[in-house]
């Protein structure tokens, strides 16, 4: 069996995630003894042995819908977002004189990967509404790497999901050299999923109980306020703009 919580699992969060999984497992009455942190995420998500994982909204609507069971949506209590929603934060260097996103139309944009709601789809949709699209691109492989690329001058702008931005500000000193320019329209948070043949209801109940069981410190570390049901149709309604390879 497979359980993974890969989306917000930087070293400062790993201990809390381990305890969170143990609480879920205890309430569920089954599951692997430890979280899986190696291997390909697509292999995890599509495995018939998947008990629990968390994916991004873009992979869910583009490739996973109809192949996995949607369990529920965590609530991270993010500013300016309804419960169970999040958005992307555009960050630039604090010493950059440009203050409007339109001024960055020809700047180098760092993004984590093409199939990322917060790192690619949401920011591109946002700037398309402003009349431009990013052309000078740097793919980094991760939100932290995108933020670091901006801080180090290898890129001029990046978009990070709001929770990652919060976590980086807590733990990474380089973020003091960055400034927030804008935020995108909120969309549903990265959902919990299980294998298609599994019933999501008992897993939802186990997660809810596990969140209640977390210590105040672990709940704060994970920014977890609760879990709720957001229907698949709300994920599927989010726009999917062209990928970087499509220009």
What are the key terms here?
D-Maltodextrin-Binding Protein, domain 2, single chain, 9 helices, globular, alpha/beta, 36% helix, 5-stranded mixed beta sheet, 247 residues
Distance from N terminus to C terminus (CA atoms, Å) equals 40 Å
What's the architecture of the largest domain in CATH terms? 3-Layer(aba) Sandwich
Main structural class? alpha/beta
Which CATH class of the largest domain applies here?
Alpha Beta
How many whole angstroms does the radius of gyration measure?
18 Å
The amount of beta strand, in percent, is: 15-25%
Major β-sheet strand ordering:
1-2-11-3-12
Number of helices, counting only DSSP H or I runs of 4 residues or more: 9
Layout of strands and helices, then pairs:
Layout: E1 2-3, H1 11-28, H2 41-46, E2 50-54, H3 57-64, E3 68-75, E4 85-86, E5 88-93, E6 108-111, H4 117-128, E7 136-139, H5 143-151, E8 157-161, H6 162-171, E9 178-183, E10 187-188, E11 192-195, H7 200-213, H8 216-222, E12 226-228, H9 232-236
Helix pairs in contact: 1-7, 1-8
